User: Fold these one by one.
Assistant:
Number 1:
Amino acid sequence: MLVLGMMSGTSLDGVDAALIETDGRAITRFGRSEYRAYSGNEAAALHAALGRWPGEEGAAAAAELSVAAHAALAGRFPEAEVIGYHGQTLAHDPHGRGTHQAGSGAALARATGRRVVWDFRSEDVRRGGEGAPLAPFFHHACAAWAVSAGHLPAAPVALLNLGGVGNLTWTDPRIQTPEAPGACLAFDTGPANAPLNDLMRARRGTTRDEGGALALAGRADTAVVASALAHPFFDRQPPKSLDRDAFAAVDVAHLPDADAAASLVAIAAGAVARGLQFAPQMPTQVLVCGGGRHNGAMMAALGEALPCAVVPVEAAGLDGDMLEAQAFGWLAARVLAGLPTSGPETTGVPGPCCGGRISSPD
Ligand SMILES: Nc1ncnc2c1ncn2[C@@H]1O[C@H](COP(=O)(O)OP(=O)(O)OP(=O)(O)O)[C@@H](O)[C@H]1O
Ligand SMILES: CC(=O)N[C@H]1[C@@H]2OC[C@@H](O2)[C@@H](O)[C@@H]1O[C@H](C)C(=O)O
């Protein structure tokens, strides 16, 4: 089936939408994609609602805004039979209050006249999993696709998503299904772009460090980096997940702008290196997707910190800006096929877990 996957990540910059043709197992074809940036007012409303749970101030407005933005974008894809709708994560506390993605799939189904698969994380959390990351089974499908297309050798590889938070999937495409033991090991690596974006907003009034120019002009403060990487999160065995602001306490207030940016980049790269130590074997390469791969300082720091090649995921014929949107399209097809969306090695859920809810327009 032809599915439209839609994702608005923790960076709160906008919505990605991408078509994918799949039965929830193999990827038959990648289709076209579009991005819709949030307006300043929309981003401000979403920021104001961060950390809020259903019923709390700002959450309902964020949910309505999310549905409206996604419906507008979905209107540009009339050919999609089904929509995979992630919603906007406002809060994530899997072993406490749960996980909260604002935006109702039922409302989106009514607004678009199409079937919507949504609420992908709750069931995993309810069953004791981390509820994240959910892209790993899709990363396995991508690796298998890239091997069959001749873009990758048939060997273990890692996919690293550098969004607001980073997440990494080690995967062996020689194993047939993603839920099979040994096919995937996945976890959030640590903070990626979110602290850098927050720094740029506070100090420069911009949304991001374009190309990593500011970080490239600075020097990482070794004491700040070491103290951030001393966080007990990095010693925890994967799977493990993070809330967007888990590292809000990293203190770079005393550093000049460029050194502060360089330090946050070094922390993000160091976090990936710490995480990769848990991989069952060193991957042939780390394929980087997500906005962070456009940050030259981030890519350079990763190249230094990791013991294997680090390349943008385009090297394997994939689209690094749309991988997460595609993931939620593929996962939607998987939910409709009744196949698991997470497992013990991706979210720590005790057994294979079929998450997601299905809403019809009528
Ligand atoms: N040209 C660029 N230069 C520097 N940084 C960039 C560039 N383009 C994107 N980014 C960074 O990538 C971020 C967006 O990444 P992405 O869209 O992958 O995140 P997300 O999907 O919102 O987050 P997550 O994956 O955590 O849910 C931006 O907020 C910015 O920090
Ligand atoms: C709770 C939540 O929304 N987590 C996001 C976030 O952004 C990156 C990282 O943290 C990952 O855990 C996840 O998103 C991706 C798409 C995932 O679930 O694989």
Number 2:
Amino acid sequence: MVVELKNIKKSFGRLEVLKNISFSLKKRERLVLLGPSGCGKTTLLRIIAGLETFEGILIKNFKKIGYVFQEPRVIPWKTVYENLKFVEDDDKKIENVLKSMKIHEFKDYFPNKLSGGMKQRINLSRALVTEPDLLLLDEPFSSLDIHIKWNLLNDLIKEWNNRDLSLIMVTHDIKEALMLGERILILSNRPAKIIKEYFNVKALSEKSLIKEIVELWNERR
Ligand SMILES: Nc1ncnc2c1ncn2[C@@H]1O[C@H](COP(=O)(O)OP(=O)(O)OP(=O)(O)O)[C@@H](O)[C@H]1O
């Protein structure tokens, strides 16, 4: 087990955000938490990353976290290469990840010269270059066009194949969840709780899954 949550609860003042969240992540698993906007997904990731207080039990069995934010948090006055150098000194590791994430040819560019998809490639590379064993992804692809999203997710899965990496992505995007997840947990509207679990995601039909999830979110408003 890489991480285990038992009855995690979180409120901001009187606003109840998370209600008894329990799940665990296996080693090398790709888990997606799929929930509607504003249900508490970022809060949950921040709790796992140790950035937020909470009630309940969190068992951490990982060494290093990589965190990819919703918006590309690149440093604008540093080049692509310098953005990675900021977190990792080993040039060989930087070269390798820039190549595998397909931004090597842009390594001397400043981020503002690059598209949103390319900026997210920098973000992902920066998270991966430090060789985390747990990668947390906070809807990093939600604003991207479907073909860019598809290519990026596929490159991420290739990276995952070559690394000792477990990952948790939170998203409200059903397609994105289906592309990346091996297992999907469905969160309710706020306060978020787990209302359904899908194993063996590949065997599911996208259309029926979308219908089922939308019905779940509608009935629990
Ligand atoms: N530090 C904070 N103080 C007060 N309220 C907060 C704080 N952080 C988040 N919230 C509130 O908690 C709720 C859940 O926020 P969170 O960002 O976790 O949801 P989310 O599912 O990630 O949303 P989105 O899909 O829009 O990114 C929101 O109503 C938000 O306004």
